[in-house]
Amino acid sequence: MTMPDSIDAVQTLLADTGYVCGRSLATVVFLSLRLGRPLFLEGEAGVGKTEIAKALAQALGRRLIRLQCYEGLDASSAVYEWNFPAQMIAIRTAEAQGNADKDVLQRELFGPDYLIERPLLQAMRPDPAGAPVLLIDELDRTDEPFEAFLLEALSDFQVTIPELGTIKAPEPPIVILTSNRTREVHDALKRRCLYHWVDYPTFDRELDILHARAPEVAETLSRQIIAFVQGLRTEDIFKKPGVAETIDWAKCLLALDVIDLSPEVISDTLGAILKYQDDIARIEGSEARRILDDARAALEPA
Length: 302
Ligand SMILES: Nc1ncnc2c1ncn2[C@@H]1O[C@H](COP(=O)(O)OP(=O)(O)O)[C@@H](O)[C@H]1O
Ligand SMILES: [Mg+2]
Description:
The chain is built from 15 helices and nine strands. The protein is α/β, with parallel strands linked by helices. α1 (7-15) packs across α2 and α11 packs across α15 (286-299). The two termini are 46 Å apart.
């Protein structure tokens, strides 16, 4: 699969996988591919950050390697570990057979057979399909020491394993980092990357996304859903629904054979778009009716 040679080509390529990509996001994706720079995507949960890495891997025919970040993630779980239980068994077996030559055993135990490759090391391995897409997901969940480590790993794409030597990527992976911005990621890391804030989509784009992801939902209902969700996002609530919630909700309504939104249906299915009881309590009933009325009015032809 050849690399896209224009911003339009990026949009087309991603559209073929069902990913709806606006012009500014397509531009930064294009530049990231062209310049070989990591792409840092920040935005609220459920706006399509993780999905773009998946779509890109699929569109380019590359392997997707995902490093899911979490609190306490350290370099060894991100790069490699030694298979300690297997090493123990090998030692026991060698002892039992009485052929425990210390040097031979040591070389074997710290060789490729006992190495567990974690995502960063996997991403440096050559691949016949071309360099993989490395997704470093939800970076804001880790801590500063890990960021510092990552900064280094992303600058030279090589790791040194004391027992095995240095492994260097023949071709650097396509790197996408995401953050839900629960905390600010350090400047130094951001400076190494191209940055893009992924916003909630506009009405038209979200409708396109819904068409792509839930084509079975009828047009009138689809429009009502988007208008309602977009209205809901302007309310003062704790956790605004993402695109993922819009799609989920549409599928719920489809399963319930709903053809037209009503305040009752909305109240019964709010759990698909709002995930906090305080938000649900706030919107249920008269608020839902008001947002729906506004949404209907906005949909009226002028
Ligand atoms: N632009 C888009 N085009 C197609 N689907 C999208 C788009 N944005 C979001 N989605 C849908 O929303 C879901 C959630 O997106 P995800 O990438 O997991 O969000 P984030 O990583 O930003 O929290 C995806 O599974 C996808 O189906
Ligand atoms: Mg995500």
